Write a sequence for this structure.
C-alpha cells in the first residue's frame, strides 16, 4: 500500500477539492432544486390564490371536494394500517428466519415498485370486474369491489405494500436476533418479546415507513383512476378530483385542491424528517456503545 | 383517536353509504357533457319532485366514451348511459348483455335527443389560414384530435375527414391516403375529447383542434373569444350521441321508472333548451328554430346513410387491425 505516504492534510484537501468547483456544484444543486421543485410549488400556490382567499376556501369546502378528501383519508386509514401489519410480518419473516424461497419473497415485496400503477388497477378489474375472474360470484351476492371503496383501497394497498417492509428489513437484519433470543431465554413469551424487545428497536424505522406509505397512498393516481369509475362526489379521491376540476376549466379550484394535497404532503414531510433524525440518533448511540 | 375506534368509524361510514335510502341515479357519460348534465340534472330533479316524487341524487361520471362503455361492461353500475356514439352502447349488449340488441329503437330519434357536428377550432386570426379539411394535411400543420380507440368524438373526427376525402377524391383508397396524411400531423392523441381541448387551449399545443361543435363553443365561452375562433369546414358529419337505460342495472336497483323519466325529459322542451344552451343541436324543430342563429349551416353526412351504421363502421375502421390501426401503426 502506497497510501502511507499521504498525510492527513492531503486527504482532507483532496476531499474538499478546489473551492471554485465546490461552490459551483452547490450553486448548481440549489438552482436545480429551485427550478424543479420550488418553482412548481409556488406556481400551484399562486394559481390557487389568484382570485383571493374567498375562492380558495370555497373550492376546498365545496361538497365534491369534501367527499374526495373524506374518501382519500378513508382509503389511507384502511390501507396504511394493513400495510403496517403486513410490513412488520414480512420483515420479521425475512430477517429472523432462514427458509427456502426467502429471496423470492423479498423480490415479490418489491413487485409494486416495478409494476406500473395502471397495470395494478387493471389486475383488479380483471379479477373483480363483471367480466372478470370472480365476476359471477360477486354478481350473485351483489358485492361490489371495483368502482367502489373496496377497489380503491385494494389498489392503494397494492401500490404501497413495499414501503414499510422495505424500511424494516435492513434495520432488522442489521440488529440480528440476539436480543430476542436473550428475551426468550429469560422466559418472555412471544408477545412479550415483540412488545418489549423488537418493537422498541424498530420503532423509528417503522414510523418512517408508515409516513412514506401514507404519502404515497394519499397521492396515488394511476391505479385508483382505473378502478374508481370517476363518480363525482362518491368515488373520486383528491388527486382524481384535481384532474376533474382542471378538465372543467376550473383552474383556480383545481389548484386550490392541489395545494390542500400539498399541505398534507408537507405535514408528512416534517414527520418524515423528524423520524429520520430519531433513527440517525439511535444509530449513533448504538455505534458509540 | 385509537386505531380500533378509527376502523369502527370507517366501517360504520361505509355501511351508511351502502344503506342510503333515497333513490340514486348514475349517469355514465362521455367527456364534453359535464356542463350540460350538471344543469340538466338540477332541472330534472325539480320536474321529478313537481310530479310528487322524492328528490333523487343524480351521480355523474365522465370520460372518453369508449373507456366509459368499458367501465360499465366491467361493472360500473350505470342506470343510464349517455355516450358519444351508438357503437359504444352496442358493446354493452355484445360484451356485457346489459341491454337488448334493439336498444336504439326504444326512444325517439334513434335514442338521440340532441346532435352535434365536428368543426375546427383555430388560434385567433387563423395564422395557418385553415379553411377546410385540405389545409389539415399540409406539411407542418399540427392537428389535435383524441384517440379513436378510447374517444367517441375522435371517431366522428376520423369519419368526417374520411367522408370529405371520399367525396372530393372519389375512392376509398384516396380517402385512406388522405386520412393517413392527416394523422401524420397529429403530435399527441389524448384519451378523451376534453383532454384534447385542454392540450390545445391550455397547453398551447397544435394549430387546429378537431372538436365537437359544442366543445368548441364551450372553449370559446370559457377561455374568452379573444384567443380562438371556430372554422366550419365545407363538409362534416352529423354526430349523434345516443342515450340508453341499462336494463340489468335498473332492474337490480329498482330504478327503471326513474331512469326512463330521466331520459324522456331530455326530449322535453326544457331538456331541449338546456341542450341548445350548451351548444348541442336540439332535435325539436321549434327549439331548433329558436337557436338557429347559434349554429353554422353545414353540409352533413350521416353515419347510417354514408357509413352503413356503426355496426359496419366500428369493425371496419376502429377495431383491432382496422383502417385506423393500418394507418396509425403502419400495420
Amino acid at each position: 500500500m502506497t497510501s502511507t505516504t499521504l498525510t492527513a492534510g492531503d486527504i482532507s484537501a483532496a476531499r474538499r477539492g478546489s473551492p471554485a468547483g465546490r461552490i459551483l456544484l452547490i450553486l448548481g444543486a440549489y438552482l436545480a432544486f429551485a427550478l424543479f421543485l420550488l418553482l412548481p410549488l409556488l406556481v400551484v400556490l399562486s394559481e390557487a390564490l389568484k382570485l383571493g382567499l374567498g375562492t380558495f376556501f370555497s373550492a376546498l369546502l365545496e361538497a365534491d371536494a369534501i367527499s374526495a378528501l373524506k374518501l382519500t383519508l378513508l382509503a389511507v386509514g384502511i390501507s396504511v394500517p394493513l400495510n403496517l401489519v403486513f410490513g412488520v410480518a414480512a420483515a420479521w419473516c425475512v430477517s429472523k428466519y432462514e427458509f427456502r424461497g426467502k429471496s423470492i419473497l423479498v423480490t415479490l415485496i418489491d413487485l409494486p415498485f416495478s409494476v406500473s400503477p395502471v397495470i395494478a388497477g387493471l389486475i383488479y378489474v380483471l379479477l373483480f370486474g363483471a367480466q372478470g375472474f370472480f365476476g359471477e360470484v360477486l354478481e350473485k351476492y351483489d358485492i361490489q369491489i371495483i368502482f367502489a371503496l373496496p377497489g380503491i383501497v385494494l389498489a392503494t394497498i397494492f401500490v404501497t405494500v413495499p414501503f414499510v417492509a422495505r424500511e424494516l428489513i435492513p434495520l432488522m437484519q442489521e440488529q440480528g436476533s440476539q436480543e430476542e433470543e436473550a428475551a426468550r431465554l429469560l422466559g418472555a413469551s412471544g408477545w412479550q418479546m415483540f412488545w418489549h424487545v423488537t418493537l422498541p428497536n424498530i420503532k423509528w424505522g417503522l414510523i418512517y415507513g408508515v409516513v412514506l406509505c401514507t404519502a404515497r397512498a394519499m397521492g396515488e393516481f394511476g391505479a385508483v383512476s382505473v378502478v374508481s369509475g370517476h363518480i363525482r362526489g362518491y368515488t373520486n379521491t383528491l388527486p382524481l378530483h384535481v384532474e376533474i376540476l382542471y378538465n372543467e376549466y376550473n383552474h383556480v379550484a383545481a389548484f386550490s385542491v392541489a395545494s390542500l394535497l400539498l399541505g398534507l404532503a408537507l405535514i408528512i414531510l416534517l414527520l418524515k424528517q423528524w423520524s429520520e433524525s430519531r433513527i440517525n440518533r439511535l444509530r449513533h448511540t448504538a455505534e458509540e456503545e | 383517536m385509537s386505531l380500533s375506534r378509527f376502523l369502527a368509524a370507517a366501517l360504520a361510514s361505509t355501511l351508511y353509504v351502502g344503506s342510503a335510502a333515497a333513490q340514486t341515479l348514475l349517469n355514465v357519460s362521455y367527456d364534453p357533457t359535464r356542463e350540460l348534465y350538471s344543469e340538466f340534472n338540477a332541472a330534472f330533479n325539480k320536474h321529478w319532485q313537481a310530479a310528487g316524487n322524492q328528490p333523487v341524487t343524480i351521480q355523474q361520471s365522465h370520460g372518453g366514451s369508449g373507456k366509459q362503455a368499458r367501465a360499465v361492461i366491467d361493472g360500473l353500475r350505470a342506470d343510464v348511459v349517455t355516450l358519444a356514439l351508438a357503437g359504444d352502447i352496442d358493446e354493452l349488449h355484445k360484451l356485457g348483455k346489459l341491454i337488448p340488441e334493439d336498444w336504439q329503437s326504444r326512444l325517439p330519434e334513434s335514442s338521440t335527443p340532441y346532435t352535434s357536428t365536428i368543426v375546427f377550432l383555430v388560434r385567433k386570426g387563423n395564422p395557418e389560414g385553415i379553411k377546410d379539411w385540405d389545409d389539415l394535411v399540409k406539411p407542418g400543420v399540427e392537428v389535435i384530435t383524441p384517440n379513436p380507440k378510447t374517444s367517441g368524438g375522435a371517431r366522428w373526427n376520423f369519419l368526417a375527414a374520411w367522408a370529405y376525402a371520399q367525396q372530393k377524391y372519389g375512392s376509398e383508397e384516396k380517402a385512406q391516403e388522405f386520412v393517413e396524411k392527416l394523422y401524420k400531423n397529429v403530435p399527441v392523441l389524448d384519451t378523451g375529447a376534453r383532454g384534447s381541448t385542454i392540450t390545445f387551449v391550455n397547453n398551447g399545443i397544435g394549430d387546429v383542434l378537431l372538436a365537437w361543435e359544442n366543445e368548441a363553443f364551450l372553449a370559446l365561452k370559457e377561455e374568452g373569444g379573444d384567443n380562438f375562433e371556430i372554422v366550419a369546414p365545407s363538409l362534416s358529419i352529423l354526430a349523434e350521441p345516443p342515450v340508453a337505460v341499462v336494463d340489468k342495472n335498473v332492474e337490480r336497483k329498482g330504478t327503471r321508472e326513474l331512469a326512463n323519466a330521466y331520459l324522456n325529459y331530455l326530449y322535453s322542451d326544457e331538456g331541449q333548451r338546456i341542450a341548445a344552451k350548451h351548444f348541442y343541436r336540439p332535435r325539436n324543430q321549434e327549439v331548433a328554430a329558436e337557436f338557429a342563429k347559434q349554429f353554422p349551416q353545414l353540409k352533413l353526412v350521416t353515419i347510417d346513410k354514408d357509413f352503413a351504421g356503426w355496426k359496419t363502421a366500428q369493425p371496419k375502421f376502429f377495431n383491432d387491425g382496422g383502417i385506423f390501426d393500418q394507418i396509425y401503426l403502419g400495420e
Notes: The mean pLDDT of chain B is 91. The first helix of chain B runs from residue 3 to 18. The two ends of chain B are 60 Å apart (CA to CA). The interface with chain A takes residues 3, 6-7, 10, 13-14, 17, 26, 31, 34-35, 59-63, 71, 73-77, 95-96, 194-195, 198, 222-223, 252 of chain B (CB under 8 Å).
